[in-house]
Design goal:
Largest sheet of chain A: 7 strands, mixed
Structural class of chain A: alpha/beta
Number of helices of chain A: 11
Low-confidence stretches of chain A: 1-9
Distance between the termini of chain A: 45 Å
Oligomer: homotrimer
Shape of chain A: globular
Number of strands of chain A: 11
Strand order of the largest sheet of chain A: 1-2-3-4-6-8-11
Order of helices and strands of chain A: EEEHEEHHEEHEEHEHEHHHHH
Mean pLDDT of chain A: 95
Helix content of chain A: 40-55%
Largest interface: A-B, 39 and 33 residues
């Protein structure tokens, strides 16, 4: 990790430009804050890489909890104007310029990861929480979507791999072809997340679960993750293939025209994405 | 396709003996009407083959929506008195005399398919909607069942392949051993369908979803289906094997005796199948 | 089976020390009664082996229904003080000293098995019902949990294999890392069981389903189980590997210390396990 991003002076806290991590016992609570809307760009990828490396190297840390400082956006999606840059940052973790490989690395890590979701998680934001070991979401505010089909693309960060296994062929095809928004209750019914719950009980629930797991022997975490991943986590080559397919399709002229049209309607702006599913549905009408 | 079955005079409509297809933009809305109860016999198989071939050949068509003209029966099941005939019709699509292969062909097609379900879908009717990419059903009227176990058979059109993957071992065994009826809400909880919804919102929901998907680039549909099918659609040889097992078992004397007993109680009649699960449960008592 | 355990005098009943089986038509209703809390020890394993062998050898029997004589405990979990003994009993069924192999044998059997669950099913108790073909549970009383992570272990009887397939990666990791209790409604939402239902309708529902299935041709049961198991039942070597991992980890000093600490707080006592999840969560605090 780049020491420049990390403020050594705050004791049990790690402070990066886009992440703040606070340790409580064996649990590291990580807050994502990449204004204005938590786009997954080079800075956030760089900081996630640093955080993962640092946490893995610290035997005192067993569990990571991710949440957002922004009530409306958990991680919105990748910054489509900076794909090469964020991919280069991801390469620092795995040697491959792909966030799919970074996400899979996290899934296979000895660390237990929990996503505590409020606000929007679309595109690679959804793929980040799918890479976590568990996902709990606020019924009132969490919104899930894979927006890539609106541009003629397959998600590049593993969504097809996870969703086909979590929700089955029919629901995965619906999600991956429709670019629709799904609220937390429907996401729970579809298996996208572990559970939807009221926002006012989410934080306590996740904190309690994280500490509970962290109190159990670390050797058990490793073997459970290994055995479950052997069954339910897609092979590296399938993540790599989806990542390559995304990379190829984003250079496609039709995809570029649609991204441009979306940009003109407020894509990658805080206001413009509050009701993104509707905007994407009207894109080809312009 | 046989031109004889297709009325060229109706512009954007394709009219077959048992199907009427109406194009709206890139969506083809297909209505099934094979009175008296939408049995899957040679005529309906022949028309489905023609429709699939015609739609695949027409680059303007991206999405197919299937619904039934009969409020009580979507597709009831195969006509057990005409197995060789409908299998021969299915061979015109894939070269193999098997509706399992026809259904799998549809699942692997570039076309996106949506089943809008009202009424009964049992046996191969259920397998047809399972072959579609998505399934939405009317809470008030849709009824699902695999009736083959009552005759000592495994479903021949892919139900075991789909249901074991969609709902897991326990629920799939229940469905595939019990010959019970399942309403739309339970079918949703089991993952048999994407969603149950009120009948009066079903048509608008499906139409809107179909047009939404159809507006997105077709290249995206193809790659998404390819990647999801690679994970969640069973290999050809497993469909073929189930089809063969069904074909062998239907010639079994015990199966024939049970089919005969069911016929005497109204099997393959509109009235007799309104409460088919109960009738099948009492079969061996006679 | 050991004739000593079986009282030949009761006609259609088979009476073992810890099991009583009563035949009704082609259904065998088996009641588990191993006071004080239905621990899975050598006696219950021995009797299950005998019962399975006897039922498989009797062509008149098609379906087994398992229920508990104890309203609070269905099967609590293995007796951790007698692991070698119960493993030796399990070896009499499959030649391998492993309850994972015994459970997998049952899953692959020609017999259709239904678990009718009231009370607690934790650890190997959960794995026993997962090995059954179907699981229905009383909403008011059934409690599910995998307690092994609290001791730093992976479940040894197949829970990881079943749960990862039934509920997907996120929910399976939650269950297998948290040692939490899950009520019947949540177990249904997660896919752990087929359905939760009111206690007062559970028995009638299961009895009716069992008889319905038993009236259908046995040849159909065999082929359906074979085809579904080929898709959704883990390979023998994965059950064996989990069993070995459990066996190794239970000899680990940290596991032994935690088991000892749990014993001091009432583990393996009827009262001490009424609220076991809470006790396990506080274990490392002592």
């Amino acid at each position: 990790m780049s020491k420049a991003n990390y403020d050594e002076s705050r004791g049990d806290a790690m402070v990066f430009e886009t992440l703040t991590a606070r340790r409580e016992g064996s649990v590291l609570f990580v807050e994502i804050s990449a204004p204005p809307m938590n786009l997954l760009g080079p800075e956030l990828v760089r900081d996630l890489v640093s955080l993962i490396q640092r946490a893995e190297a610290d035997a005192a840390i067993q569990v990571l909890v991710f949440k957002s400082a922004d009530p409306d956006y958990f991680i919105s999606h990748v910054d489509v104007t900076r794909i090469k840059e964020y991919r280069d940052e991801a390469a620092k973790l795995t040697g491959e310029a792909s966030i799919a490989m970074m996400f899979r690395y996290l899934s296979a890590s000895r660390l237990v990861t929990i996503a505590q979701i409020e606000g929007r998680v679309r595109g690679a934001g959804s793929e980040f929480v799918l890479a976590c070991d568990m996902r709990f979401a606020a019924r009132e505010s969490a919104i899930f979507g894979q927006i890539e089909p609106a541009f003629g693309q397959i998600p590049g960060g593993g969504a097809a791999q996870h969703l086909a296994r979590l929700m089955g062929r029919g629901r995965a095809l619906e999600v991956l072809l429709s670019s629709e928004d799904y609220n937390a209750d429907l996401a729970e019914r579809y298996g996208w997340i572990n559970r939807a719950m009221p926002a006012d009980s989410l934080e306590d629930f996740v904190r309690s679960l994280a500490h509970r797991i962290a109190r159990f022997p670390a050797a058990g975490h490793v073997v459970v993750k290994e055995r479950v991943n052997a069954i339910a986590l897609a092979p590296v080559e399938d993540f790599r293939r989806d990542s390559d397919l995304f990379g190829e399709s984003v250079r496609n002229p039709e995809a570029q025209r649609r991204i441009q049209a979306a940009m003109e309607r407020g894509f990658q702006t805080r206001d413009g994405e509050m009701d993104l599913a509707r905007m994407l549905g009207n894109l080809s009408d312009h």
